[in-house]
Structures are given as structure tokens and as C-alpha cells.
Write a structure and sequence with these properties.
The protein is of the alpha/beta class. Helix content is 52%, strand content 11%. It contains 13 helices and eight strands. α2 links the parallel β2 and β3. The longest helix is centred in the middle third of the chain and has 25 residues. The structure holds nicotinamide-adenine-dinucleotide. The site of nicotinamide-adenine-dinucleotide (NAD) has 28 residues, from α4, β6 and α9. The site of nicotinamide-adenine-dinucleotide has 28 residues, from α4, β6 and α9.
Length: 359
């Protein structure tokens, strides 16, 4: 029998090729007239074009976003917003840039318009994180939830293929863990299944199309992947994550491993760990990916598309594996299979070596 709690957020989402052209009217729709544009240094040129597009509605560009939102960067951005009299923020980029926008909104209640250019999914969640003295403090606050989100697949055409695959598997992890979340509900489950299907189609198609010259095929693949990423972000914002996200948080935060790559390596092993305790979720993933075994399907998605499959190849040291396990085991949290030290350590060892799950 069904029993669930369903939460929904008030956000406006525009999806489609060329929706960036509607930014100006969306800023106006929020009653805003001076918006500070944020980006990483890497995307400053593209973000500068957004500033030009906004004309008098722009309060300039802050191109200092970096991974994990260091508190110093957040302070500089808050100051820039105040000095320039900004009444809103446009976050143009991936999870790092959207994270910076959230850090500003946490301190001063400016509405955020997010223009995601990766598949990380932060734009659909009220989750924020700020790093101080090497520790990332995370929390949930509706103040930081972007009010408007513009998904324009054309903006993802230049996302490097390798990063597209890892970022896409990062997204897929939200949907996969959403399927066995303690607070999963019918809508999050529908979204998760649809998302996994779209990413499983889109990611290999991006790789194939990027090797050729058919721009329409590439754009179609980009559209599939971004659509899947949107739904994955919705799932992440609505239901609680489990062992996989905890391990990735530990590995990223304490051992400075790259976010999307860590998700890519860990996901097949976290799914294998939970497989026996979450058979319905595994069946849903298998069905969405059109493959007999969920952990192996995710492993193959990475392997076949040139993404890393071992922690070793993304910079982890063998001597840190036990420490990572200790940190991840410090707090218990909901997970389909209870957290057992020996089994979690084995999971990390398998991921370190890049072994095929279940082998
Ligand atoms: P990122 O934002 O750090 O981007 C990685 C790099 O790719 C950057 O240099 C960026 O400028 C560049 N880039 C982005 N889009 C591009 C494009 N279309 N073309 C070319 N280059 C592009 O990486 P990410 O994986 O999107 O975000 C990771 C961060 O987001 C982590 O800190 C993670 O914790 C956070 N995150 C937060 C949430 C949340 O709900 N709060 C959810 C997911 C991720």
C-alpha cells in the first residue's frame, strides 16, 4: 500500500535551444533591474556575453567562482553584489557557480536565476555548501533555491566530452539513490526512471556525435542529457541521498578528489553494495538502462565512454583508502543496507582498483 509525503518547490524552468535569449524578460519577471552575473574564470568570456545581453539590467560580472565555495570567495561575491547594488543574481555555469550564488543568497535575500551548463543538478535543490578551514558546511534553506532556471542545450555544446560523461554520471547518481531513498515518493520515482533513461541514451550519443560533424545529432544528444540532468536535480532536491553521496562527499572533501569523477567511480560499487537490499531500485535502473544488471550497466557506461573507473586514476593514494572508510563510517545515516565496516572498506578497495562490480 502506498504511503508517502510529497513536497514540491516553486520554481520556473525554461528548457530548450535558445532559451538564453529570454533571460532579460525572466529578470524583469522577478521584478529585478540590476543583476550580478557569476561565473568561473574559465567561463568568463561566455558570461561576459550574458552581461552584454542584459545591457542596463546587468550589474557586472563576478568571474571568481571556484569548486566547493570557499568562504573567502563567498565574502568577495557578497561584497561585489552589495557594492554594485545588485537586486538579483544570474549564475552562469556548473555546480560551483550555482553554489556561489547560493552562498550569496544565504546572506542576503537576492533571487537567483540559474543557467546550468553542466549536469550537476544544484540549480534544482535548496542545498548549499560553503567551505571554511577545509571543511564543507552544508545545509538546506529555501532562500537559496533558484527562482528561475534556464536550461539551454546550446550552452553545453562546448562542455568537454570526458567531463560530460562524468558530470552525467554524477547526475545519474542522484536519480539512482533517489530510487531507494527512505523518503522516495511516486513523483520522485517517476522522475528518476525517466532521468536515467535520458542519460543512458544521451551520454553515449554525445560521445558518438562529438566525434563527427553532425551538429543536429550533437544537439539532440545534449538535449537528452540536459533533460535527464534536470530531472536528476529535481530528485536530489526532494529526497534524501545515501551511502553513495556520503562516500563521494568524504572523498571529495577530505582527499580533494574531483567531484564528478568521484561520483563516476563510486556509483557502480555503491549500487552493488545496496543491490540485495534494494531490488526494486535495481530493477528500475536496469530497465531504464536496458541492461540486465544495474551496477554493471553504470560501470560499462563509464568504461565504454572513456570515463575513469578507478579512484587510483583520479589521484587517490592507496594509503588513504582506510582513512576514507573511517571518516565515512563516523555517522550512521539511512541506507538500504546497514553500513558494515568491512563491506564498505571492500567497496572502497574495489573502487580504488577499478574492479568490475560483482567480480
Ligand atoms: P564545476 O561547476 O566546478 O565546473 C567544472 C568546470 O567546467 C569549471 O571550470 C567550469 O567553468 C567548466 N564548465 C562548466 N560548464 C561548461 C561548459 N558548458 N563548457 C565548458 N566548460 C564548462 O563542476 P560541477 O560538476 O558542475 O559542479 C561541482 C560542484 O557542485 C561541487 O562543489 C558540488 O559539491 C556542487 N554540487 C552541489 C549540489 C547542490 O545541490 N548543492 C548538487 C550538485 C553539485
Amino acid at each position: 500500500m502506498n504511503s508517502f509525503t510529497f513536497n514540491s518547490y516553486s520554481q520556473k524552468v525554461l528548457f530548450g535551444n535558445g532559451v538564453l535569449a529570454r533571460l532579460d524578460e525572466e529578470v524583469a519577471a522577478l521584478g529585478a533591474s540590476r543583476t550580478l552575473v557569476l561565473s568561473t574564470p574559465n567561463q568568463a568570456q561566455e558570461a561576459e556575453r550574458v552581461v552584454e545581453q542584459l545591457g542596463p539590467r546587468a550589474a557586472g560580472l563576478f568571474a571568481g567562482a571556484v569548486m566547493h565555495v570557499p568562504v573567502e570567495t563567498a565574502r568577495q561575491a557578497i561584497e561585489a553584489a552589495a557594492q554594485r547594488g545588485a537586486d538579483s543574481i544570474v549564475a552562469f555555469g556548473g555546480g560551483s557557480t550555482i553554489g556561489l550564488a547560493k552562498a550569496i543568497a544565504l546572506e542576503s535575500p537576492l533571487p537567483i536565476i540559474a543557467i546550468p551548463t553542466t549536469y550537476a543538478g544544484s540549480e534544482m535543490t535548496p542545498i548549499y555548501g560553503v567551505t571554511e578551514h577545509g571543511l564543507k558546511r552544508t545545509g538546506r534553506d529555501l532562500k537559496v533555491l533558484p527562482r528561475t532556471v534556464l536550461y539551454d542545450p546550446e550552452l553545453t555544446l562546448d562542455l568537454p566530452v570526458q567531463f560530460s560523461i562524468t558530470s552525467g554520471i554524477n547526475a545519474l547518481a542522484h536519480a539512482a539513490e533517489g530510487l531507494y531513498a527512505q523518503d522516495a515518493e511516486p513523483v520522485s520515482t517517476l522522475m528518476a526512471k525517466e532521468a536515467i533513461g535520458a542519460l543512458a541514451r544521451g551520454l553515449p550519443a554525445i560521445r558518438a556525435a562529438a566525434a563527427g560533424t553532425d551538429r543536429a545529432a550533437l544537439l539532440a544528444a545534449r538535449s537528452d542529457a540536459l533533460y535527464g540532468a534536470w530531472l536528476c536535480g529535481c530528485v536530489l532536491g526532494r529526497v534524501g541521498m545515501a551511502l553513495h553521496h556520503k562516500l563521494c562527499h568524504t572523498l571529495g572533501g577530505s582527499f580533494n578528489l574531483p567531484h564528478a569523477e568521484v561520483h563516476t567511480v563510486i556509483l557502480p560499487h555503491a549500487l552493488a553494495y545496496n543491490a540485495g537490499a534494494a531490488p526494486q531500485a535495481m530493477a528500475a535502473i536496469s530497465q531504464a538502462m536496458n541492461a540486465p544488471d544495474a551496477p554493471q550497466a553504470v560501470y560499462d557506461l563509464a568504461l565504454a565512454n572513456g570515463a575513469p573507473v578507478s579512484l587510483r586514476e583520479i589521484g587517490m593514494r592507496a594509503e588513504d583508502v582506510e582513512a576514507a572508510c573511517e571518516i565515512a563510517m563516523r555517522n550512521q545515516y539511512p541506507n538500504p543496507r546497514p553500513l558494515e565496516h568491512g563491506a564498505v572498506l571492500q567497496l572502497l578497495k574495489d573502487a580504488f582498483e577499478g574492479r568490475r562490480p560483482g567480480s
